[in-house]
User: Fold these one by one.
Assistant:
Number 1:
Amino acid sequence: MAVKVQMEGAIALVTIDREQQLNALNAETLLQLEKEFTALKDDRGIKVVVVTGAGKKAFVAGADIAEMKDMNEREAWEFSGLGQRVFNLLENMPKPVIAAINGYALGGGCELALACDLRFAGDWAKLGQPEIGLGIIPGFGGTRRLARLIGRGRAMEMILGGEHIDAQTALEWGLVQRVYSADELMPKTMEFARRLASYSLRALQAAKAAIAGTEDLGLHREQELFAQLFSGHDQREGMTAFLERRSPKFTE
Ligand code: CO8
């Protein structure tokens, strides 16, 4: 199983466990996450959810490029829809969700962190939306959530520029709330989670609902634009070049 869930009192620790692929999200992993998040949503014994990645190198290095490479427009539309559905479920979870960003949070991995309520990062973490270099755009809600969190200018810089930013910059930009050393990241995250778990679930739920509201993110547009990029040359070239470890030659 690519997703592991451990309970510690009223805290659920969800670990994405595909360490060899830097925890990249394929459809199977997204479906497992959907199943686990649905169960946690309705579990009255769980008050706080913490999401992290297996190993020391990556939180999640993105959607699985090898799986996406040969998708057609329809398949890309469905894959984007699946990711959006799972991340919406997380964002709308009626209890706080904390991302413990233990390394690379790129593409779909950064989008996963954005769907959480709080982001605590290791000081070695790198965050980014590098999709542009693959000939695509973020397709799991990142275009809207990033702009909402750090503003349109910085979202443009990250999504058009495609560069990674370090944890300190992410902290300055408000993309993460706290930065910890490798020794501290999980203990401090769990300590904060325990603090939340000592409060009333009803009050936590009300606080989250009041802050988050029920805004329509307009993700349908992102899904459509994302999928259209799978009907041409550059997406396939970008992903093939990544897998072959060479620079892409974009022509469109
Ligand atoms: N997908 C699949 N495999 C991956 C991914 C990924 N996103 N990232 C890393 N891997 C694999 C590598 O292919 C490699 O596999 P192997 O050992 O079999 O060759 C293994 O993980 C280790 O990676 P590297 O050897 O590349 O490790 P490095 O330390 O050299 O580099 C990086 C680490 C910088 C994280 C590098 O792996 C990298 O750049 N990864 C890709 C990052 C990226 O571009 N992410 C965005 C992907 S696109 C996306 O997320 C779109 C989201 C919306 C999707 C919408 C639905 C269709």
Number 2:
Amino acid sequence: MAEFTIRPLSPFGAEVVGAPPTLEFSEADFGTVEEAWLRHGILVFRDLSMTAEQHIAFTRRLGPLHIMTPMHFNLEGHPEVFVVGNAEEGGKPVGLKDAGMGFHSDGEDKAIPNAGSFLYAIQVPPEGGDTLFADMYGAWDALPDDIKAKVAGRRARFSRVTLHHVHYPHLPALTEQQKLDRPDVWHPIARRHPRTGRTALYIGRWAVEIEGMEEAEGKALIDHLVKFAQAPERVYRHRWLPGDAVLWDNRCTQHCATPFESSRYTRRMHRTTLEGDVPQLAA
Ligand code: SIN
């Protein structure tokens, strides 16, 4: 019998209380964890002590892993682990600084966005650097009927090329090759989750246009949906301690990193990322 319990969090998500620190589960227990992940959208673990191999092995049980490109910030010897934060080794940054500011889901600007991500806290500041998670099933369910009718059947254009300088002002501009590698993509705004069949609002920080709408009208609707998705009553704030990890489902949640005093503190997080599938329009 499982020695851990699944405790719902407010306003959504759940904590796995008493999981083995290495996340090595039996088949049956892994099934319970996976089912809880699909049901709650985010799962919080605490007091973990995982090697990179164990982090990778747990995530791989959920599906094929995605290797982040460019590879600059992947852990040496473990390209499946993407390092986030301001940590340095030998005077050189080992992670992507200021990653994930602004609500988004991972890979939303790609033709095949990532199904899920698993972020493990190695070193965290004593204050700041929280991560916010928004419930996108809840956002869809709460949308007024007239807005649902407006977006039903429509897709939004997500564009890294248009917004790279806005979301990553501290990074070099995209090269012509990088622009070719990250073409704009269209995704349904009402997205059917491939495993649960539920409908989630699918919008985020790279969305720039809605199909069949005048530019200004589409932009205004995107701004409205983005704001609506971030309503505090549907947002869980995770205040990190070292050894915490959060597994999220990018198909029905969004997340957003928050700032901290990076001149005083180090924040180092290790993320594994799951491959996904082409987003499907909800019926
Ligand atoms: C991310 O967007 O994957 C990083 C979130 C965080 O560092 O809080």
